């Protein structure tokens, strides 16, 4: 797959173990020029160091809860890139206390934060990205099987992922006339910074490896390969889909 001459933005890189970083590397290897975003000064240096290994990258601040910052990001993209071909949404957040204990005890504010960052954020990002996708484009969001099934400790993030998947379908229908495809990848459990906050995460990985048809956990590189495919012309007929990359775990009943 050759993405030479294509530009795009990857949101959600936190460190070298981020799914977003694996995707960014694969897209860059395919020839694409990338913009990476970071949230706050705490992550700025880390993301900029990673970006040094890419070809002519942009690094931009973007708090997904700040409409002004989102608007500024795409203004810069328009000035620097002219147009973009893809957007990777790998953003999710919930308060740590809402990822343990009982789901029924989730507070109103905790529920709102999880929904706003993990699901709603896709809407303004696509709204601002679409005018730059002058030749059509691809939007790829990251989801998880907890949108459909109960995973102990995932709690409110399961609700957020369910909302995100509906947003993917709704946006796919609305953006289709502009030849903008919107899809999601449902990845198996990976050891990322975000995963550390999930109670019982190691047990989750063990269960996946034990019960999945391929009898192993997936790698971030496997997710990145699927994202590359979805961003390429080879996926031109695919939109509104949730594609599992989980070694087949989602098909198993026991």
In words, what does this structure look like?
With 254 residues, the protein is an alpha/beta fold. It contains eight helices and seven strands, in the order βαβαβαβααβαβααβ.
List keywords for this structure.
alpha/beta, seven-stranded parallel β-sheet, 8 helices, 39% helix, lipid biosynthesis
Low-confidence sequence ranges: none
Gap between N and C termini: 37 Å
Give the oligomeric state.
single chain
| Cα shape | globular
SSE string, helices as H and strands as E: EHEHEHEHHEHEHHE
Strand order of the largest sheet: 3-2-1-4-5-6-7
The number of strands is 7
Output the structural class. alpha/beta
Integer average pLDDT: 94
In DSSP terms, counting alpha (H) and pi (I) runs of 4 or more, how many helices?
8
Largest beta-sheet characterization: 7 strands, parallel
Strand content: 5-15%
Q: Helix proportion of residues, in percent?
A: 25-40%
Radius of gyration: 17 Å
């Amino acid at each position: 797959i050759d993405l030479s001459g294509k530009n795009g933005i990857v949101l959600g890189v936190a460190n070298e173990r981020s799914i977003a970083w694996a995707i960014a590397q694969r897209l860059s290897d395919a020839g694409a020029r990338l913009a990476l975003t970071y949230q706050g000064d705490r992550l700025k240096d880390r993301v900029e160091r990673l970006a040094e290994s890419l070809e002519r990258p942009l690094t931009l601040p973007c708090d997904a809860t700040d409409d002004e910052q989102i608007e500024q990001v795409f203004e810069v993209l328009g000035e620097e890139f002219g147009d973009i071909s893809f957007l990777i949404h790998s953003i999710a957040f919930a308060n740590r206390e809402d990822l343990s204990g009982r789901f029924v005890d989730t507070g109103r504010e905790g529920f709102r934060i999880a929904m706003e960052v993990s699901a709603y954020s896709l809407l303004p990002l696509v709204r601002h990205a679409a005018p730059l996708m002058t030749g059509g484009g691809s939007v790829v969001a990251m989801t998880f099987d907890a949108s459909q099934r109960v995973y102990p400790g995932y709690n409110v993030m399961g609700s957020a992922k369910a909302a995100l998947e509906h947003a993917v379908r709704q946006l796919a229908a609305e953006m289709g006339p502009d030849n903008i495809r919107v899809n999601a990848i449902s990845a198996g459990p990976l050891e990322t910074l975000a995963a550390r906050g999930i109670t019982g995460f190691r047990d989750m990985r063990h269960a996946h490896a034990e019960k999945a048809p391929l009898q192993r956990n997936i790698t971030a590189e496997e997710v990145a390969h699927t994202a590359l495919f979805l961003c390429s012309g080879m996926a031109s007929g695919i939109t509104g889909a949730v594609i599992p990359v989980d070694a087949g775990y989602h098909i198993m009943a026991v």
